[in-house]
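Need tokens for this chain, all 190 residues.
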Amino acid sequence: VVVSTTHGPFTIQLHWRDAPRTCRNFVELCKHGYYDGIIFHRLIPDFMCQTGDPYGDGTGGESIYGTTFDDEIVARLSHDDKGVVSMANAGRNTNSSQFFVTFRACPHLDGKHTVFGKVVAGMNVIDEIQLVKTDKKKRPVKAIKIFGTQVEQDPWAGEELPHGCYIPEKPLIKNKKKVTGKVKEQCTIQ
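Here are the structure tokens for all 190 residues:
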């Protein structure tokens, strides 16, 4: 998957055999433009950058499986290098659309976040993103935006969505949404 940003494109190779539900979610959201126009809302130098929230504050996002879906933790997939792509969450089994890219090895995240890909081209873009200044809340001072995504290889090409799945609508208005009567928790990586 090629992710085109304000800093240039980078390419993610997906671990679709090891994390099929997570990769299917990501591919379908990419194919339907879900990430188009979304910002990187959190950036911590020498750690990671986070995106995928249509609200831009870490509290939004939805998956093709509904509000959230379960983790796919695989022991041989690790946050062992720069450029690892993993799901952001608000705790166990709370994946939606938010993901992050590591700026270095972060093995303390293993077992907590589903690794589903690796940046294989455009690492210079990841390096440039890491240099963007942030405010006290770790938000980039100058917006880093995803212009669009292009799925170059779709393991599910021609297949219908799994039973019960749907493409979520991307919110047009930035406001706090309610999930079962309470404000949704922020997805974090620590």
